[in-house]
Specification:
alpha/beta, Rossmann fold, six-stranded mixed beta sheet, 6 helices, 10 strands
Length: about 210
């Protein structure tokens, strides 16, 4: 599904990746492990085509990530990080805006699916009428997750997505993503809740190897 082949990348004279090769298969749940600053978030930028390797290639579903198909790839991927930016205005207006975008023109607002997602992530129904600026960090994080769900994404790049959540919700969110067999999920996180799931694989970015 996502394949790094002999990727070399440097930044400000520092080598981030040297001959990095590993593959995330379709439906796999993978945690990227390694110290801060090693380049974990940069891997997401490579997948989304915001950064281009100096050598080597990144493939998505068998196709190289390049200027020819990068927008098609981004339409298939949900990227969620801890610095959630979901616009301004009421939450209800945010969902309407997302569905009005040309890339999402084939989608229709699924009120039942939205309600079920709100219930699972313990968001009150009246949150739709709240101003986004009034939401807590944890609420914005969960709204971002719900947004990716209603857009029907199957590939998720999650960068510290549980950072703003309490212990109970961290566990619910991790289980939610890890239990979907048809979803491909790549996670950057320091929260141990991800490691507790038997479906999760861990790739050591420093050692460039899978952990047993």
């Amino acid at each position: 599904m996502i394949d790094f082949e002999d990727v070399y990348l440097s930044y400000n004279g520092k080598v981030l990746f040297n001959d990095l090769s590993f593959k995330v298969g379709k439906g796999e749940k993978v945690i990227l492990a390694g110290r801060s600053g090693i380049g974990k978030s940069t891997l997401f930028s490579l997948i989304l085509g915001f950064v281009t390797p100096e050598r080597g290639m990144v493939f998505f579903d068998g196709e190289p990530v390049d200027e020819k198909n990068v927008w098609q790839i981004r339409r298939r991927v949900a990227f969620i990080d801890q610095d959630v930016s979901i616009g301004r205005g009421r939450v209800n207006e945010w969902f309407d805006f997302v569905l009005s975008l040309k890339a999402n023109s084939s989608l229709r607002r699924d009120e039942r699916g939205l309600r079920e997602s709100f219930e699972y992530f313990e968001l009150e129904g009246d949150i739709l009428e709240k101003d986004i600026n009034e939401l807590s960090g944890g609420e914005r994080q969960r709204i971002a997750v719900v947004t990716s769900i209603i857009l029907g994404r199957k590939v998720f790049l999650l960068d510290e997505v549980t950072a703003s959540l309490d212990g109970h919700m961290k566990e619910k969110l991790a289980w939610f993503f890890c239990s979907r067999s048809d979803w491909t999920v790549v996670v950057i996180s320091h929260d141990s809740v991800w490691l507790e799931n038997p479906n999760v694989k861990v790739f050591d970015l420093e050692g460039k190897r899978w952990k047993q």
